[in-house]
Amino acid sequence: MTKKERVKQFGLVGKNIDYSFSRTYFRDKFERENKVGYRYANFDLQSIENIREVFNSGTTPSGLNVTIPYKKAVIPYLDQLTEEAKTIQAVNTIVIEASGKTIGHNTDHVGFQKALLKRIEKKPKQALILGTGGASGAVHYVLDQIQCSFQFVSRTPQKGKLAYADLTKELFETIDLIVNTTPLGTFPNVEEAPPIPYEYLDSRHFLFDLIYNPEETKFLKEGRSRGAQTCNGYQMLVYQAEKSWELWNQ
Q1: What is the dihedral of CA 114, 150, 209, 139, to 10 degrees?
Q2: Boundaries of every domain in the chain
Q3: Could you say which of 8, 35, 71, 218 is catalytic?
Q4: Which residue from 49, 132, 216, 246 puts its CA 20 to 30 A from 91's CA?
């Protein structure tokens, strides 16, 4: 790198993120597109409070991605949220302006919608969203946009949400989309899966898992073995990453 070339720093904020899709994806992208002086690093934080140190470091990043478990927790540390991020109440992309102002965006909804509509044969009408964490808000947002009714399923359901024990054969006969937003089944815990009654699945169902490692989770295997269509989270991650890149370079 010559003296005239400045480092442009980007990165991922999360906890225990050595596996990081984002770091590998953007490093490969920078090399492929000959982005000299561009860097992408993991900011593995034990507490979200430490994000202040990231914002005020020697090489202040131009942009950040945010992953589990900080998509909701990061919000109080930001100067501004986009309307989508406010609605979803989760941030996975931060734009840092030259002034230091931090703006929280959500590109997960862009990734999920593109990946879902490219793979599913017809628009879903009734869905179950497994989990209520940061990623579930983006799924909720998209299903609202495409006018698909849905119910949340949680291990600790609050009012208006279903428990896994509430999932009956009769309910499954009305459902055409099931989205796993929980981390159950993520490598290395590949034998884990959301505790839904898989015996009620058949060819009418489409299973979408936000997990991308392993390529086929136990959740997806169980669905595929019963004739359901399936899709993992890899393409969603690519689409949301490219949207992040677009925002960082506006």
Answers
A1: 50
A2: 8-106, 109-233
A3: 71
A4: 216
35: annotated active-site residue: no
| CATH code assigned to 8-106 | 3.40.50.10860
CA atoms within 13 A on the CB side of 234: 11
16: tokens are 């225990």
Backbone region of residue 34 per phi and psi (left: phi > 0; alpha: psi in -120 to 50; beta: other values)? left
pLDDT of residue 4: 43
Q: What is the pLDDT of residues 150-164, one digit of tens each?
A: 999 999 878 889 999
pTM of the model: 0.92
Query: What's the mean per-residue pLDDT of the chain?
Result: 94
The type of residue at 4 is K
Are 8-106 and 109-233 equal in CATH topology? yes
| Contact by Cβ (8 Å): 217, 235 | no
Residues 6+ apart with CB under 8 A from 181: 129, 130, 131, 132, 133, 135, 136, 139, 210
pLDDT at 2 (0 to 100): 43
More confident residue, 5 or 194: 194
How do residues 208-221 score in pLDDT, each as one tens digit? 999 999 999 999 99
Cβ–Cβ < 8 Å for 248, 38: no
Separation of alpha carbons 91 and 66, rounded Å: 7
